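EI: anyone free to look at a 191-residue chain?
SC: sure, send it
EI:
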Amino acid sequence: MSSDFEGYEQDFAVLTAEITNKIARVPRLPPDEKKQVVANVEKQLEEAKELLEQMDLEVREIPPQSRGMYSNRMRSYKQEMGKLETDFRAHLLDNTERLERSSRRLEAGYQIAVETEQIGQEMLENLSHDREKIQRARERLRETDANLGKSSRVLTGMLRRIIQNRFLIVLLAIVLVITILTAITFSVRRH
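SC: here you go
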């Protein structure tokens, strides 16, 4: 574990030396190059923070009897990191860069507002289209319901006629059977 910690320590030392060197060079750089170096330093500061987090995790895994020495080293590294960040903010960012950053934020905010407005407009259009579709579907349902009512009445009428026709057929069959039986009875009595 301590070998991992020492590896992180070496990486942290190299990284902080590079950051310190770049911070010292920034005031003498032309504006275009200055922006690139500032962005690079910000990335390196993030990398250094990540290394500190890794080192902190390693310290937590070290047995308590050995942890004290590593904890003291971590405190000094965190102080060094804080000093680097303070120096970076104090010496590198002049008013022009702050204004540029603010204007970028404003532009980003404006862009987000425009995108939000466009999304809202699209949503309203979609809702309007959906409302029209729902209204058309409702009309179709009403028409279908009316047609189903008519169909139900027609089917009911047809069913009544079928029942009437069956009743008439049965009645005619009975009358026919009675007539045939009567005719047979008369013909048998005559003979």
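EI: The helical segments are 2-25, 31-61, 64-92, 95-190.
SC: 👍
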